[in-house]
Amino acid sequence: MQAVNTRIAAALNDGTRKRELWAWAMYDFANSGYTTVVITAVFNAYFVATIAGGAPWATFAWTAALALSYALIVLTAPVLGALADLRAMKKRLLLATTVGCVVGTAALALTGPGTLGLAIALIVFSNYCYGSGENLSAAFLPEIARPAALGRVSGWGWALGYVGGLVALALAIAWVTHVQARGGGATDFVPGTMLITAALFALAALPTFLLLRERAEPQGAATGAALRESFARLRHTIAHAARYRDLARLLACIVCYQAGVQTVIALAAVYATQALGFGAKQTLVMLLVVNVTAALGALAFGHVQDRLGHRRTLALTLWLWIATIGVAWAAQDEATFWVAANLAGLGLGAAQSAGRALVGWLSPAARRAEFFGLWGLAVKLASIVGPLTYGAITWAADGEHRPAMLATGLFFVAGLWVLRGIDVARGRAAALAPDP
Length: 436
Hints:
Helix content: over 70%
Radius of gyration: 21 Å
Shape: globular
Strand content: under 5%
CATH architecture: Up-down Bundle
């Protein structure tokens, strides 16, 4: 135990307590219930089959709703990040987005057959708040972890996040089993899972707001001028993009491979139910197991990243994803799809952790929230392109999912190609140099 405490202390910046690391990681735990239950496991399949009535356009409607929420994040994330840096208000903005996501998730309990417009509006709102909060939480990473430990600390956070997803799924399975034992169907158990997810998010996020410190200092803008100066900082960053060309290339790489990752997150349950005939409880159990492998992937690859190097580790995870998509596309039975699902879990934990840590490695200290806002922009842009492409292909193929799954693999191939041009050492030198 003493050795573990020593390793944790060695990974943290001076003045950072272990309880702050736990409090920061607990936000990953808290918000994972939303993405696991609402976006990946329960509400997506419910939206397609029940709210949209299983229409040929249903999958496209789901992906279009997500795309709209991500488009709003793309428009606002860099400015929110710059504002958070200028006014040292990451924590306050994080609180606002957390409340929004919790309220929006709870309100999803009101949806059902005949509420398509309400369901779309609530998904757009709650997912916007979730994604914006994810960016702000990630911006605390370089404040907590030493530069040489960004990979493993990021991995610890993602691993605890998948534990949060496991807890949310376990509670959802228990509720679904209880309702089905009484003869209830999806319209009876889905509202309860939304309320459970919202409550878990609110409770688990409390340590973040009680224990995590805001270490950034306001950088001179008066409250009334902060938003205007945020836009000015963003224009400055874009004008000097050549200085951070390796970070810019990394963001392009993230757009490519995250298009594939976000497609799997948004449509795994839909694929399992529509292409392979999985039931609701069976899908939940599968995703529960996937969260275990994702946690293992985040932990293992976080340590590998600090030893093997950021770029090599990311390349390894993209090869893993390419193999995963091939197995999922070829799967004709449950056993083969289970193999693909667990490979996806390993790749999910690894890719998410590696990308976040590498952004932290290449970001200047005074612009961390801003650059993590750009990271969020890249991920959300990918979240538009990937799922929307998948939905359009299924619509064009009259509801057939296998061609769309095969096309998803091309995003990871593109990510590998872009990754080849990143010079991590040069990018780190640019991050450490004085800001012009």
